[in-house]
Amino acid sequence: MAISRRKFVTNSTTALAGIALGKSALGDTVLNDMGNGTLPIVVSTWKHGLAANRAAWAILSEGGYALDAVEAGVRVPEGDPLVTSVGYGGIPDQTGKVSLDACIMDEKGQAGSVCFLQHIKHPISVARLVMENTPHVMLSGKGALKFALANGFKKENLLTPEMKKKWKEWKKKQEARDIINFENRSKDDHDTIGMLALDAEGRLCGACTTSGVPYKMFGRVGDSPIIGAGLFVDGQVGGAVATGQGELVMKTLGSFLVVEFMRNGYSPKEACLKAIQRITKQIPDYQKYQVGYIALNSKGEYGAFSIYPGFDYAIKTNEDDKLKEAESFRKLL
Ligand code: GLY
Hints:
By secondary structure, the protein is α+β, with helices and mostly antiparallel strands. Helix content is 34%, strand content 20%. It has one domain: 4-Layer Sandwich (Glutamine Phosphoribosylpyrophosphate, subunit 1, domain 1), CATH 3.60.20. It is globular and about 45 Å long.
């Protein structure tokens, strides 16, 4: 990603011209996609994606199913109390309660989702059961909890002592979190995990799970459990996942939009940029927030884009096990 300032300016100009003019004018230096199409492959959001990818890889490398891989992958940060934006140990809402959102999709377009789910450490596995064992797509709140308990999940306290202490400190100050300056945020302060995997048989599946925006209002649900917003998969075309401020993603149905751009011939990275551009065009106060997308197409090519610098994502293939920073819209300006 290291490029000279002159080249960056040239490429940025080309890219911005492309944004205005459409696909044929998109600069192909800045907007090249990555990946050489070798299967299997798994990509996921943020640094916590590295450990998650390795869990997914244990399944993919044995010829396993992408759906099993993405579920196993995102369960890693869900169960890790040090990941404070997903699952157990997640930052609570204003009332000190941890509520979780998650969804999952398979290569045939089947989908399952849970939102505002409390007390269950692995919402992604509940979402998968909703997909596989019910006629519905989404269960919420008490209904989701009841369904989870009826299916053998254990009721747990998801608020760790460390997080309870932080919440009490926050409550005393009642300060809104600085969600603008993502570059200066703590290295351990990440966000939603979204994961996309393409297995050796070419089956593309995705998963997305989060504890949502820190100190959110009680009852707030974000983009992550919304099919088409936090995650969308079309097994013939590709998949996309979102991270960052969910409200912006919901207002533009971001992941669905990324997949539709890929359906119309855009590469994964171009498609992510165009969905970011939809936000910057349509949402007047977008500057206050960060959003990032990653996309994987059915050929195994991947790409990412974010509003602000600082969004990194993890890639695992036979050759690679790495973290990359996505290019960002604001850096192009
Ligand atoms: N993207 C996570 C959320 O807004 O809840």
